[in-house]
Amino acid sequence: MSNTHITGGTAITNPEQLRNIPGIDIRQVAEVHAKYPMRISAYYAELMRKHGQALQKQAIPDPLELYDSDGMIDPLDEENLSPVPNLVHKYPDRALFLVSNECAVYCRFCTRKRKVGTSSMVINDDTIRQGLDYLKKTPAIKDVLISGGDPLMLPDRKLEEIISQVRAIPSVITIRIGTRIPCTLPSRITPELAAMLKKNHPIYINTHFNHPAELTPEAAHACALLADAGIPLGCQTVLLRGVNDSIDIIRDLMYGLLRMRVKPYYLFQADLTKGTAHFRTKVEKGISIMEQLIGSVSGMAIPTFALDAPGGGGKIPITPEYIQHIGESFDFTTYKGKKCSYPNVEIND
Ligand code: SF4
Description:
With 349 residues, the protein is α/β, with parallel strands linked by helices. It folds into 3 domains: 48 residues, no CATH class; 239 residues, TIM Barrel (Alpha-Beta Barrel), CATH 3.20.20; 28 residues, no CATH class. It is built from 10 helices and 12 strands. It has a 9-stranded mixed beta sheet with strand order 1-2-3-4-5-6-7-8-9. It has a 3-stranded antiparallel beta sheet with strand order 10-11-12, with no helix packed on it. Strand 1 and strand 2 form a beta hairpin. The N and C termini lie far apart (70 Å). It binds iron/sulfur cluster. Iron/sulfur cluster (SF4) binds next to loops. The site of iron/sulfur cluster (SF4) has 10 residues, from loops.
C-alpha cells in the first residue's frame, strides 16, 4: 500500500522525515526502525508537532525499544490460541479475527508489535476464508471482534465483504470492530463507510484514544458519523508512562470521550510486550487513578481498569479495595474512605 493511498497525505515511514523534530536522533530512530515498523499518518504527525511529547512517545521509535530484556514476544499467547491463522479463540463465546496487518500509526506500545506492519503477519484471501470457516463451524462463538492491525485500513469493499460474511453466520450475535482510526486518521471515517457498517448491525466499535490532545474536531466528527449510524462507541485506553499516567490527564480524557459520544470502556495496564517496558506503570498507579475517579466523576466516565493476564489467561478487572468484611454485616469503606456497614441478612417470609 502506498504512503498516500489511505493514510490521507504523505505518512512518515522513513526516519529522515523526522529530521526537523527537535530532540530526535535520526540514527537511533533508524536502528529501531530496522527491527520494528514505523508509520505516522500525516494527520497524526501534525497533531504530534502541535502537542509534543505525549503524542510523540506513542508514535516515534525510541531506542529503549531495543533494550527490553524481560519483555515477551507474544505476551497473551495468541499464536498458541489460534486454531487457524489470524483467529484467536481464547474465551468460549468470543473470537478475535485479524483481517488487516496495517495501521495508520504503528503505536510503539502495540501488543502485537511482533507482527503488525511486518511481513511475518500474512493476511490474504486464504487466511480470511479459513477464519470464516472456523466461525461457521464453531456455533459457540457469539461475538466476533474484528481487528488487526487496523481493519479500517482495508478499502470499504473488502471490509464489507468480510463483515457481511461474518454477519451471515447465524450463531454470531455481535460484531465488534477494534480500530484506532478515529484517533489516528479520522478522515477515513466517511458517510459511505458508516452506511456500510449500518447495514450489518448489531455492530459495536471500540476505538482507542490515549490523550486529551487526540480529541480533535476531526476525531469528534468521525465519531459522530459512526454514532449517527447507530453504532455504540467504546474506548480502550492504555495506561502509558509519560503519556497519560496522571489523574488529571485521564479525567480530561474520559470526560472528553463522553463529549464525543464515546463511552470509556477499558483502561488497560500495559501488556508485557517485548520492546515496550519503558511504557509500563506499576499496577498501584492505575489503582490510584481509579480511586480518584470513582465517586468524583460521573459513572459514565469510569472505565474498567483491567490487566490481560500473561500467557492467555484473559482479562481481569482490577478495582480499588472497598470491601473490609462479609458476615452478618457487609463492612466496607466509601469512596471518601469512611467506614460503613450494611446488614447482610435475608428476612424469611
Ligand atoms: S493501532 Fe492498534 S494494532 Fe495498530 S499499532 Fe496501534 S495498538 Fe497496534
